[in-house]
Amino acid sequence: MNEQFFDCFDPIKMILEHVAIWTDNLEGLKHYYVKYFGATPNEKYTNEQNQFHSYFLTFESGARLEIMSKPGIPENKNDRVTEQHKGIIHLAFGVNTMQEVDEKANELRSDGFKILRGPRKTGDGYYEFETIDPDDNRLEVTTKYNP
């Protein structure tokens, strides 16, 4: 669609309500986001009929991550660690300073999590590093800087 199509509509204020991730490691993934990213989990939701379990993890900004588990969900064929693919490729967490980026990278590295790239300055004014969570979902921790 061209941009003129959208010019005729009044904008509706939208927020990204949540992002969802399937996992076979529900409790481990919950623990990771609580410990390293300050998430607050809700009470575990369970639907016994279809063996579905989930948590909503809420972050200080109000953003939420839903982690879900259910038997029979096929493995993801993407190599999320080294290869880039179409579709959602990472979640980004923002901090206030470059020092906080460095501190989080050092904390994760010292606890045995792989740092894929960085910390580094990007050409578009960010200081960031890339890592992966226990399920190999790609994450960034980032802050703006003035070049």
CATH superfamily of the largest domain: 2,3-Dihydroxybiphenyl 1,2-Dioxygenase, domain 1
Structural class: alpha+beta
CATH topology of the largest domain: 2,3-Dihydroxybiphenyl 1,2-Dioxygenase, domain 1
Radius of gyration computed on alpha carbons: 18 Å
End-to-end separation in angstroms reads 36 Å
Mean pLDDT: 90
Q: Please, how many helices?
A: 3
Output the helix-strand order: HEHEEEEEHEEE
Shape: globular
State the share of residues found in helices, binned by percent: 10-25%
Throw out a few tags for this protein.
147 residues; 2,3-Dihydroxybiphenyl 1,2-Dioxygenase, domain 1; 5-stranded mixed β-sheet; single chain; 9 strands; 2 domains; globular
What does this structure look like?
By secondary structure, the protein is an alpha+beta fold. The chain has two domains: 16-71, 2,3-Dihydroxybiphenyl 1,2-Dioxygenase, domain 1 (Roll); 89-147, 2,3-Dihydroxybiphenyl 1,2-Dioxygenase, domain 1, CATH 3.10.180. It is 20% helix and 33% strand. The chain has three helices and nine strands, in the order H-E-H-E-E-E-E-E-H-E-E-E. The chain has helices spanning 3-7, 26-37, 98-110; strands at residues 18-22, 40-41, 45-47, 52-58, 64-69, 91-94, 115-121, 126-132, 138-144. The strands form two sheets. Strands 1, 2, 3, 4 and 5 form a five-stranded mixed beta sheet that branches. Strands 6-9-8-7 form a four-stranded mixed beta sheet. It is globular, with a radius of gyration of 18 Å. The N and C termini lie far apart (36 Å).
